[in-house]
Amino acid sequence: MSALVTAVREVWGLFVDDGKLALGLVVWCAIAGLLFRALPFSAEADALLLASGCVAILVASVFATPGRRRPG
User: Fold this and answer.
1) What is the pLDDT of residue 61?
2) Neighbour count for residue 14 (Cβ, 10 Å)
3) How many CB atoms lie within 10 A of CB 18?
4) Rounded distance, CA 37 to CA 72, Å?
5) Please, which residues have CB within 8 angstroms of residue 57's CB and are 6 or more apart in sequence?
6) pLDDT digits over 7-61, tens only?
7) What is the distance between the alpha carbons of residues 59 and 40, in angstroms, rounded to a whole number?
């Protein structure tokens, strides 16, 4: 059972390295999806808003992450 849990964690880590970043992006996409239905913006404005929010979350995550040293 322990090997199975370890394998699942390793596979999960391949796709989700930073849980806060992943959660932030999922929450932003959900909020943006609700906003886009309620606000009468064009598709181009929706795409720009979605991309800007994702970039902002990524930048915030990069600056919030303490410096990691590369092995070597």
Assistant:
1) 86
2) 7
3) 14
4) 49
5) 21, 24, 25, 28
6) 888 887 777 777 888 889 999 999 999 988 898 889 999 999 999 999 999 999 8
7) 28
The pLDDT assigned to 72 comes to 52
Residue in the block written with tokens 């849980």: 19
Contact (CB, 8 A) for 32 and 53: yes
Supply 55's token pair. 């970039």
Residue 71 pLDDT: 58
Phi/psi region, residue 61 (left: phi>0; alpha: psi -120 to 50; beta: rest), is: alpha
User: Of 55, 35, 60, which is closest to residue 45 (Cα–Cα)?
Assistant: 35
d(CA 62, CA 59): 5
